[in-house]
Automatic annotation (TrEMBL):
Signal peptide: none
Record Pfam families: MFS_1
Main location: membrane
Superkingdom of source: Bacteria
Protein source organism: Draconibacterium orientale
SUPFAM superfamilies the record matches: MFS general substrate transporter (SSF103473)
Transmembrane in keyword set: yes
Chain segments annotated as transmembrane: 12-30, 50-74, 81-99, 105-123, 144-167, 206-223, 253-275, 287-307, 314-333, 339-361, 368-388, 400-421
Protein name from the UniProt record: MFS transporter, FHS family, L-fucose permease
Keyword terms, alphabetized: Cell membrane, Membrane, Transmembrane, Transmembrane helix
Lipid bilayer topology: Multi-pass membrane protein
Length: 433
């Protein structure tokens, strides 16, 4: 009863809570503005699925690179410092899309995304534990789920911008009456002109985003934020790392998070290729991603509410099993039903990231900052797994199945790992309580 009545967010810190929560939407926007760019770059730059998936390698690789440095800076200074640095790097990376489009170099775009996600690593390493600390520890996981509920709102806006302002405007994705790409039939000069146009189309939302992030930076810089950092600013990363590694729930939580992020990014990135295999144009295919995100948002709020009555670990187990069922259908069922199941998978992914995060950090004490960095580094799953899925898709067919269908065996495996973590943590919880 006490847990149910505990305050999730105190009114005294409501404004700072809202400001920090807005960051969840801000990095969600970047994530899902970028996911469809794999398909966009593949066509306009005339590269393979595997090479195009390097967009995700650069994007999520930035998290792995900067998470630990971000944690050390936050530990040494403050959460607010980490947020300001994160927003600055975010803005720089986004604004670098302008020269990248001018030079028309794929590697330049990758570098821009890499720097942009340096900023996101700072924001996530800061915002997640900051939200957890803003109130009663008994409601920490619920509070994080509440804040994380606004992340997919930014995501769905990013998807909308990608669909309506980018993908639908790409000349390289125009098709003839038979449904074939016209771009493939053009000569080099015609392709070059279209490439210049399309890279500018891709560039513009990122540049606008960069200026918006600067505005957010200024607002947070002048706002008074609650101090939740430790009074001890001494940095002992090696000792913290050893304690964290000995914590089985935390250690396995990092592994589960790697697989969760991999599953999420694969499902949301390659839904376009899955639909394309059914003859659906990219802009129209992105609409399925938008529906998936709407389902994700609704499920996130519902699951957050249900946590008042059901154990978070048990819910994680059930949702992972649900994800296993839907992705198995995606692999085995061809046609629109497989696509519908891929969309439905988002309902089961909804609670996973914040729930794994909250469970893993429950008993880490003063090691929370470095522990949070480890969980942010786990986002590297989104860098490593999509290129592997792209390699599978490039095979065309595997046995009796289209390779794009078979490639979703990877998210299925990810959900198996998450289910195991949910089961193990639930069993551990029951033995204590």
């Amino acid at each position: 009863m006490n847990k149910t009545k505990a305050i999730v967010v105190d009114k005294k810190i409501l404004v700072p809570f809202i400001l920090i929560t807005s960051l969840f939407a801000l990095w969600g926007f970047a994530n899902d503005l970028t996911n469809p760019m794999v398909a966009a770059f593949q066509t306009v730059m005339e590269i393979s699925n595997a090479k195009a998936a390097m967009v995700q390698f650069a994007f999520y690789g930035g998290y792995a690179t900067m998470a630990i440095p971000a944690a050390l800076i936050i530990k040494r200074y403050s959460y607010k410092t980490g947020i300001i640095i994160g927003l600055a790097l975010y803005a720089i990376g986004a604004l670098l899309f302008f020269p990248a489009a001018q030079y028309e170099i794929f590697g330049f775009f990758l570098m821009s995304l890499y720097i942009l996600t340096f900023g996101l690593a700072f924001l996530e390493t800061t915002a997640n534990p900051y939200i957890l600390s803003m109130g009663d520890p008994a409601t920490a996981t619920r509070r994080l789920n509440l804040a994380q509920s606004f992340n997919p709102m930014g995501s769905i806006l990013g998807m909308f911008v990608a669909s309506k302002l980018i993908l639908s405007s790409l000349e390289s994705d125009k098709r003839d009456a038979a449904g074939n790409l016209i771009f493939d039939t053009l000569n080099a000069a015609e392709k070059a002109a279209i490439r210049t146009n399309d890279l500018a189309v891709i560039r513009n939302p990122y540049v606008i985003l960069g200026f918006f992030v600067i505005v957010m930076l200024i607002i947070i810089a002048v706002s008074k934020m609650p101090k939740r950092e430790s009074a001890d600013h001494e940095i002992h990363p090696w000792h913290s790392a050893k304690r964290l590694f000995r914590n089985k729930i935390y250690r396995e939580g990092v592994i589960a998070q790697v697989f969760y992020v991999g599953a999420q990014i694969m499902c949301w990135t390659f839904i376009i290729q899955y639909a394309d295999n059914l003859g659906i144009p990219k802009a129209q295919a992105q609409n399925f991603n938008i529906v998936a995100m709407a389902i994700f948002i609704a499920s996130r709020f519902i699951s957050t509410f249900l946590m008042k009555y059901l154990n978070a670990r048990y819910m994680l187990l059930l949702f992972a099993i649900g994800g296993m069922c839907t992705t198995a259908g995606v692999v085995l069922i061809q046609g629109m039903m497989g696509l519908y199941l891929l969309v439905a998978t988002s309902a089961f992914m909804s609670l996973m990231f914040p729930t794994i995060y909250g469970i893993a950090l429950e008993d880490v004490g003063d090691d929370a900052t470095l522990g949070a960095a480890g969980l942010v580094m786990a986002i590297v799953g989104g860098a490593l797994m999509p290129p592997l899925q792209g390699l599978i898709i490039d095979q065309g067919t595997i046995g009796p199945l289209p390779a794009v269908n078979f490639s979703f065996i990877l998210p299925f495996i990810c959900f198996v790992v998450i289910a195991i973590y949910g089961k193990r943590t639930y069993n551990a919880f029951k033995t204590v309580h």
